[in-house]
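Predict structure. Chain length: 485.
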Amino acid sequence: MIPSLREKCGVFGVYAPGEDVARVTFFGLFSLQHRGQESAGIATSDGQRLHIYADMGLVTQIFREDVLEGLPGIAAIGHTRYSTTGSSVVGNAQPILVQGPAGPVAVAHNGNIVNAEMLRADLVEQGVEFTRSSDTEVIAQLLATATGVDWEGRFRVMMRRANGAYSLTVLTADAVYGVRDPNGIRPLCIGRLNGGYVIASESCALDHLGAELLREVEPGELVRLDASGLHTSFPLGEANRPRRALCLLEYIYFARPDSRLDGELLHPVRMRMGARLAREHPVEADLVIGVPDSATAAALGYAAESGIPYGEGLMKNRYVGRTFIQHDQRLREQGVQLKFNPLREVLEGKRLVVVDDSIVRGTTTPRVVAMLRRAGASEVHMRITSPPIMHPCFYGVDMATRGELIAANQSVEEIRRHVGADSLGYLSLEGTIGATRSTDGALCTACFSGRYPSEVPLELDKLVLEASPRRDRHDLPLVALRPAR
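Prediction complete.
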């Protein structure tokens, strides 16, 4: 609906024999809906068989009572998706379930494998058949076909071969696994729920379930949840692990403000970003407003630091999604008007500081500025709580080419003129990192700095796996795959 930062997915897992694990996973995914709104799915295990249901749409649209009742088990994983590799079609909805010599395995993935095309070609040469066009199926097939006496050995093989970002929840007949790539680019945390355990992309999912947050999964760590409890290991070894590189955009935009990353609650982190922005880019104005919802905390921080009053100037309609309008050109063109409604009585005659989290392609911000001017704002000063995004992301954010990034091709002054603002200021990279209370060495800043934590291609085609060999879905040798509506 509105071209902006979109990130690949939220993952969830639970092992809790005394719980309705499908329902627990439903509520976990509902808490992670902000991480993907294209499709969702749940896979469960009853100790012998895996059951799965995945479809296009929002979590609440897909999982009706009859669907949840048809997903029995003692363990489950779930996924909510926005596509960064592979089309937005039901065949790429996750979890992805495959059959291997060691039995069935289901995989839910947040991130992006940059060498997926090469890995898939190698697997095809070995006789592996693919049914989808996502890198998650490559991970699933790597696990299913890997040699090893146990699942830890199979994870070791997968982790040695896969390059990129992955936070996974994985379901076998008798266990749930959680694993992060050696750089820890995407978040993953562990919690305790009654007599069982849960794994989730963000701690907010644990809060909604009443689960106790134990800690984050470490980069390169494999967590196993089974009948005997919680077990951890480092399949690649704890020595010589690469530097931690948690995505800085998780702090700025992706994660919910009530989640914790590296022990820091994100709402005050974003307030600190706003305060630093006020120090770096002061301006005389009458009112500070934020573009809801991700920039609200930063706007509060800017207002507190600058002494300029904070106000609610834009109301957000949280119930208009991409699916509703994607087939209607007129509604697509009105995307900003559908999503935001300005409060004329608040804005009229005011010099505004408008705080937002990012400018990616430069298509949304001009519409917001124009909307505010039509509502009577006398001046509009844009303040952005991130540095200019100048480099593509290969780790699970939908911006894989420099050509689509406005800051890679225009100066700040040119961008200011393009968006129609009276002034434009970006938070410096140093200021952004400082607000997280982390260090440059512990964060992935690649989209701002061009410094990638692993080898990456020059460009990445989102649909690179579309033309690869595949076969029809009705040939799947899997158990209880429910048909899409």
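Summary: The chain is about 30% helix and 25% strand.
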